[in-house]
Design goal:
This protein is mainly alpha-helical. The chain is built from 19 helices and no strands. The protein has two domains: 172 residues, no CATH class; 181 residues, no CATH class. α2 crosses α6 and α6 crosses α8. The protein starts with 5 loop residues before the first helix and ends in an 11-residue tail after the last helix.
Length: 466
């Protein structure tokens, strides 16, 4: 079930909110669990049992890890937890990738398994892993109530595409959380903003990308239009989902971490990754990079750690070489910054922004390619390889057609709207006007979105496939 769908907005969500509101405190987690299982099972019911089985194994191994903490058995249980969780992820997500590459190397023809990828498995696997590792480290106690742990892992606001919510961040909220009109209002506001980013901006930008792929009239400028539109598309698609998840979390009394902080204003690639998909970056930092030694080791080992983390980051996104190359691309850029470039990019804000955006746009061309051949062809097209014309009539037509939405997306991806609103609210009279206008504007946005959804076609979130 999609957040940006009529069944979710006008049937599922109102019913869940009603049931959650009338349920006594001790049953609220049960309501969330059952609602989340229904939400997940809407698209693929059989994988509900896979998720529940994975949660149950994590639940038992978490209890055993705590019971034997400080002994060899604790290491055994937490290792088993990692093997089971990563084994499930590896089987469903990467089995055919390894078979394909094995066949390519050996010239054999081992048949592919052709396994359907369970939605959200990358996200809930990492959540369970962080839980059992934190129990092993003694950072959190093992959860004794299976329903509470299952509600945490399957919580529908963040189940499908994050942010990756760690158990340690919501441990207390799973037991005791506050509910208020102000909190709910903030959640609704955040949800509608995220929904607007997805339906009104991301979907339109995605349409440009689809048009480009189908076009026979490509040009250098059309390649750049595609690359810029896809970069903005993935930002508004994913950050929009994160906004919706955070807003829905507030409706049920949860505080989820921010997943994006205007990454396109970054002045270095290092800063970009402190602002983009924050929950994934911090997960790899705390559970891979730091355990490997982080930057407290020799320079060579430090670079090795960066390569390991970014290869895994790329591979986490998908079972294809372009994702691995995408991850390693950032590893190389980060090392270059550390070794040489940082002192130069810090001297000029203009140069640093151009440098960052150029490299980020190229990175997402690699990210969105069907394979490395297409990635190379797209990058070559951006730089005029072969006899490609510089511009075309089709590029000009679609630039004019989507110019307004592209400009809105560019401005909206910066800190300008937030800063402008903060500046306006410094005047008490204007702030009062904004407080009156804002609810009306949100209702208008919801009506407009509903019209788009009724008239539109199926358009899932990009990160559903991860």
């Amino acid at each position: 079930m999609l957040f940006s769908s009529i069944p979710f907005l006008y049937y599922f969500l109102p019913i869940v909110i009603l049931l959650y509101t009338v349920a006594p405190k001790k049953l609220k987690n049960t309501v969330l669990l059952l609602s989340s299982l229904f939400f997940y099972g809407w698209g693929e019911p059989k994988y509900v049992f896979l998720m529940l089985g994975t949660i149950f194994i994590g639940y038992v191994l978490g209890l055993l890890t705590e019971k034997h903490r400080g002994t060899f058995l604790a290491k055994l249980w937490v290792t088993l937890s990692a093997v089971v969780s990563l084994g499930m992820l590896g089987y469903f997500k990467y089995a055919d990738f390894f078979i394909e590459n094995f066949n390519a190397v050996t010239s054999l023809s081992v048949p592919l398994l052709k396994i359907a990828l369970p939605i959200g498995i990358s996200f809930y696997t990492f959540q369970l892993l962080s839980y059992t590792i934190d129990v092993y480290r003694g950072d959190v106690p093992a959860q004794k109530n299976f329903i509470t742990l299952a509600a945490y892992v399957s919580l529908f606001p963040q189940l499908i595409a994050g942010p990756i919510v760690r158990y340690s961040d919501v441990e207390k909220q799973l037991i005791e959380r506050k509910h208020s009109f102000e909190y709910a209002a903030a959640g609704i506001r955040r949800f509608i903003i995220g929904l607007s980013k997805k339906v009104l901006i991301a979907n339109a930008l995605g349409e440009v990308c689809d048009i480009f792929r189908a076009s026979d009239d490509k040009s250098v400028l059309f390649y750049w239009l595609y690359a810029i539109c896809f970069t903005l598309h993935i930002y508004f698609d994913f950050s929009g989902y994160s906004d919706m998840a955070i807003g829905l979390g507030k409706l049920f009394g949860f505080d989820f971490m921010e997943n994006f902080r205007h990454p396109f204003v970054s002045k270095s690639i290092t800063e970009f990754w402190r602002r983009w998909h924050i929950s994934l970056g911090s997960w790899f930092r705390d559970y891979v990079y730091i355990p490997l030694g982080g930057n407290r080791v020799s320079k060579i080992k430090g670079f090795r750690n960066i390569f390991v983390v970014w290869m895994l980051t790329g591979f986490w996104h998908g079972a294809a070489w372009n994702f691995i190359v995408w991850g390693l691309y950032f590893a190389v850029l980060l090392i270059i910054e550390k070794l040489w470039l940082k002192k130069y990019i810090e001297k000029s804000k203009l140069f640093s922004h151009i440098y960052v955006m150029l490299l980020i746009v190229i990175s997402f061309v690699i990210f969105n390619a069907s394979d490395m051949s297409q990635a190379f062809a797209d990058i070559a097209g951006m730089f005029g390889a072969g006899s490609l014309p510089f511009y075309s009539d089709e590029w000009l037509y679609y630039l004019r057609s989507f110019a307004v939405i592209i400009v809105i997306a560019i401005i909206g991806s910066t800190e300008l709207p937030v800063k402008a609103m903060a500046a306006l609210k410094k005047n008490s009279k204007i702030e009062k006007c904004i407080n009156v206008i804002e609810p009306v504007a949100l209702v208008v946005l919801l009506v407009l979105i509903t019209a788009y959804l009724v008239d539109g076609s199926f358009n899932p979130f990009l990160y559903f496939r991860f």
